[in-house]
Amino acid sequence: MGLKIYIAKRIVYSLLLILFVITLNFIIFELMPGNPMELFMNPSRLKSQEQVDELMKIWGLDQPLHIRYFKYVINLLTFNFGISYISMDYVSKEIGERLLNTLLLVGSSTVLSIIIGIFLGVIVAARRGTNVDNFFVVTSLTTYSLPSFWIGMVLLIIFAHGLGWFPIKGTTSYTAMNPPPNIIADITDRMWHLCLPVVTLTLFSYGGWLLLTRAVMLEALTEDYIVTARAKGLAERTVLFRHALKNASLPIITSAALSFGFLLTGAIITEQVFNYPGLGMWIWKAINFSDYPVLQAIFYIVALCVIIANFIADLLYGVIDPRIKYE
């Protein structure tokens, strides 16, 4: 089977999977206990049944189940996520307002943790059983086991409250009434606010990548082609990174694809600790107030990102390892 046929089949499978995700998403929220309309059933917000009926009509809750399902499928496929129960604003607009913050926070920490974890994983695998190996394995297990909120609070106590080097919360020091003087000042200020949250997530995540890389590298380093490469007199760095790591990278690619697929879930706990207005904090508020349109939109987008990430990872397998044939 050629690459074009494989890609065509995967696209068809992905479309069917997306339809299944939409259907499952619809069923889950239909079966959830409670009624989000109860949030508005109080004298301070709704005073008559006519207001309740009008609100249900606006959100389409008065229509039969099958009609709501078909409209739901069409709306999600066209990225029309409706209106939030809480803010009464368009969900897509609220996602756009928070998307950049989440991409900067979670994207930066994910990239850093992957790079640091893979690099250190290769180093400790090459020095298996030494003090270097023991130190980094113990350190990574420790940071990987600690709760992310505890790491964040310790960093806040030391570097924000104690030393005053970093801000306590938010994404920027500037406001609409006090805008930044130039784009350089704005970027610098945002990076300053990002430092502690990014360090928190990186410390929490890099250990998993280190342990995964170490495990796959230890297996690869016992292969015959590694012995041959060293017998040819190749530099140890070339043997480790161009031969061993390349052939051992398939599990790492899969994990990286899943990590980037879940990027838009944000970092719920870390964003709460640092009062960071990203998608994670938004999801937490939506859960507390049963804001179903928000949750349905996020679950759908995350599932879509995971499907696309896995599709890209499958294509990368053949690029990284020529032995893999598309069948």
Can you walk through the features of this model?
By secondary structure, the chain is an all-alpha fold. Helices cover 71% and strands 0% of the residues. Helix 1 packs across helix 3 (65-77) and helix 6 (148-162) crosses helix 7. The longest helix has 38 residues, at 183-220. The N and C termini lie close together (5 Å).
Kindly estimate the percentage of residues that lie in beta strands according to DSSP: under 5%
Q: Gyration radius, to the nearest Å? A: 24 Å
Quick one: biggest sheet? none
Query: What is the H/E order?
Result: HHHHHHHHHHHHH
Mean pLDDT: 78
- What separation lies between the terminal Cα atoms? 5 Å
Residues in helix, %: over 70%
What's the count of strands? 0
- Computed structural class: mainly alpha
Annotation field: number of helices:
13
Low-confidence stretches: none
Shape: globular
Which features does this protein show?
327 residues, mainly alpha, 71% helix
Secondary structure: elements and pairs:
Layout: H1 3-31, H2 49-58, H3 65-77, H4 91-126, H5 131-145, H6 148-162, H7 183-220, H8 224-231, H9 236-247, H10 250-261, H11 268-273, H12 279-288, H13 292-320
Helix pairs in contact: 1-3, 1-13, 4-5, 4-7, 5-7, 6-7, 7-9, 8-9, 10-13
